[in-house]
User: Fold this.
Amino acid sequence: MSRYEFPIALQLYSVRNELKADFEGTLKKVKELGYDGVEFAGLYGHGAEEVKALCDKYNLVPISAHVPLADMMKDPDLIRVYKQIGCAYVVIPYLPEDQRPGQPKFEEVIKNAKVLAEKAKAAGMKLCYHNHDFEFVKIGGEYAIDILYREVPDLMPQFDTCWVKVGGENPAAYLRKYAGRQEITHLKDFVGSKSENMYALIGIDENEKKESADKFELRPLGKGVQNFPEILDAAKEIGIKWVVVEQDEPSMGKTPMECAEISIAYLKSIF
Assistant:
């Protein structure tokens, strides 16, 4: 019997340029690599019915979608578009700098998340929040990420295990902290440490002979510092339903699709 039995999805932002060039061909390739499902980050001009049909054609489960908070507030019907595709979750993926903890608009984020959680529930979906490291700053002695989840009880965590670690906390411990409140989590590997240009996510040029030891770089799973058996043990313990592979930028001289292939091969090797 396998140690882990999670279905594995790919966050399609990882292969966004491939999707723009060949939407259907990219979904086909993702399935061929062994992924069970996909998480969207835009539809690149394709309609809900078409995308649903393609997921059905290639036997990919459309589990969720990353949709900017501002876009959902401007057009709440976006939530129903992803419901039509078959997604069970819609996810706030990122906060612009003026909306982050410590900035005046963070309170507005909390207010809007409450509104969107209700709209998602009305559509038969669940609203999640995908963290980075900037939520791990303290406000009144408490992490902002914890304030957000306390203030919006219907908001589900979608912990990005890379950014939890970069934020200074143990990913497995944070999964357990919110046991019973989460169903999907992001698996992401990295090397290096927190830096000012971290969000540029620029990979190391392997032709360079020397690199700073603390250069931040995203990596395929198993090629960085993350302890995935520990993370997956916690995920299994708390009943996570899906694990999602994400690598915002390729590295190690590999293409985005090659990175996705390395990541799923690593997961299957430890499953």
